[in-house]
Each structure stands twice: as structure tokens, then as C-alpha cells.
Amino acid sequence: MTTTRLSIFPLGGALLFPDMHLPLHIFEPRYRAMVSDALARDRRIGMVQPRGPGDPPPLFELGCVGRIVDVEALEDGRYDIVLEGVSLFRIVRELDVTTPFRQVEAEMVEPSGDTTLSLGMRASIEIESRRFADQHGYAVDWEAVTRLDDESLVNGIAQIAPFDIASKQALLEAPSIDDRAELLIQLMQFFGRHGQDDATLQ
What we know:
Helices cover 36% and strands 27% of the residues. It is α+β, with helices and mostly antiparallel strands.
């Protein structure tokens, strides 16, 4: 097993998938230090969700490595960055470090290889996402959506959908694009009925 050292950014509700992009505004001093360190080294940051409360909070094992592909350093020390997903990773252990940000030993997760949906599943995702967007008043460029490949469509919705942390993690951990698409449909139906404020999946 080949492992690598990663600086991690625990952020609930923020998913990143390989080949997708995630804009972030970095303002806390410890994470400003993390971005500065990443820029001086390999530009990599491990995005992972906290699994519960605490300081530091416990972490889910599965996250995604992001590479900083765009950065704007603001005058007061904050950063606006864009991460591009590189690979899913699994935390092996947390490292004992002196840096203000957390670091882990992690192994990269090989992609499943399947990137296409059946025509029926693709149609179901598009129909359910339109219904979900209409229920919540989201403005969506549906013409652009129809041009997305299956993987970008499913992962893009999974990234931006306003689900709770447990649901977002379940989407990240889905073993295949079909499993993720099926779960996504179930979540949009569930949260479409109940709303985000009074519902959670455990």
C-alpha cells in the first residue's frame, strides 16, 4: 500500500470529486497557513468532512485530494482559491504535527472505472433534479446541464445539493456512478418532500 502525507481541510457539507472544481474562501489563520504551505509545496489539500462535533472534530475516513488551480491572495491575508479534484483518498492515520492545520497519512483510492449511466437512469436524474430545483426556487441553466457527461452531471449535483453531512458523505462513498445516481435520486425526493431544515438522514 502506497501512502502519502496530506494537509487536510475539514469542512462539513463541502464535497469534492475527481475532475470537479470547488471554490473556497479561506479566512481562518490556520487554513491560511495551510494554503500558504500548499502553494510552497505541491498545491495539494485534502478535503474531508467532520464526522461530529469537537475541536478537533473526528473525521470521516474518505475524502478527496484537491489541487489549487486558481488562487487570489487578498491584502489582509485571506485567499480565494479553486480546487480541482485529483483523487479520492482514505485516511490511514492522523499525524502528530506542530503545524496549526491537521495532517494525515492517506492512501489514494483507485477510480471505479464506470463513468456512464443507462439512458433510463440519466433521464431520471434530469427529471428529478428539475423537480428539486423548482421546489426550492433554484435558477439552473438546463441547456448547459443536458450537455454534461454522466459523471459530471451526477458529481456536480452531489457537490452543490444542500443535503446534510451524512447524506453528502454517503454520496462520496458510493462505489459506482450508478449507485451514486440512485442515491442522489432518493435524496432529492426525500429532501424535496421534507426540506433541508427539518430533515436529516442518518
